[in-house]
Write a structure and sequence with these properties.
The strands form 2 sheets. The protein has a 6-stranded parallel beta sheet, with helices on both faces. A two-stranded parallel sheet has the order 7-8. About 40% of the residues lie in helices and about 20% in strands. Strand 5, helix 6 and strand 6 form a beta-alpha-beta unit. It is an alpha/beta fold. The chain starts with 6 loop residues before the first helix and ends with a strand. It has one domain: NAD(P)-binding Rossmann-like Domain (Rossmann fold), CATH 3.40.50.
């Protein structure tokens, strides 16, 4: 099952943020990477994992994989919901949607001393307006994470072992198997948000 491992989501939690047991975690973007991050946060012993997405269907899957709460980002009071659920803001926020709007919200809902990690890739021309004083006055951290800050020789064996122990059930993310001539159909399903992880089977 090693082909199903997604180092970005789990690695962002383990390596980039170094989430500690008892932490409050908020994950924005509930595709395959976000789902892996939720699994990683659960392994770290996060006491609260809030999943945030625009799709209620995806949010339902999040609860099955470890989320303790879900919030639809399309609701006008989404920010207030997250703050209430996390008693004032999350200690860690992860953004995987590739959206500046999502990243802004992720930063806003962290509490004093909180850490926001983004692995999303918005257009190269996108910029992030940030209240700079909050970085100092509220001692916040904003970090980027590329491929989960992973070192393959160190991390892949660790992830495989976690899978074997049943603690990182990446097989639950597999939503389809495709033949090579179905590859365009597979991309369509991804674009429509109807697939999480697909594999191409060569016979």
């Amino acid at each position: 099952m090693s082909h199903l491992f997604r180092t970005t989501g789990v690695g962002a939690v383990f390596n980039t943020a170094r989430v500690e047991a008892g932490s409050s975690v908020v994950v924005f973007g509930c595709g395959g990477v976000g789902l892996n991050a939720i699994q990683g946060a659960a392994i770290c012993g996060a006491r609260q994992i809030i999943a945030v997405d625009l799709s209620d269907e995806k949010l339902a899957q999040e609860r099955e994989l470890g989320a303790t709460h879900t919030v639809n980002a399309g609701q006008s009071d989404a920010q207030e919901q997250i703050r209430q659920l996390s008693s004032g803001g999350g200690e860690f926020a992860f953004e995987f949607a590739g959206s500046i709007r999502a990243l802004e919200l992720a930063y806003r809902i962290t509490r004093r001393g909180g850490t926001t990690v983004t692995a999303g890739l918005p257009p190269s021309t996108a910029t992030l307006p940030l209240p700079a004083v909050s970085l100092v006055a509220e001692e916040r951290t904003l970090k980027g994470s590329y491929i989960g800050t992973c070192v393959p020789s160190r991390d892949i064996p660790r992830f495989v072992e976690l899978y074997k122990q049943g603690r990182l059930p990446v097989d639950k993310l597999l939503t389809g198997r495709l033949t090579l001539d179905q590859i365009n159909q597979g991309f369509d399903l991804l674009h429509e948000g109807k697939a999480i992880r697909q594999v191409v089977v060569f016979e």
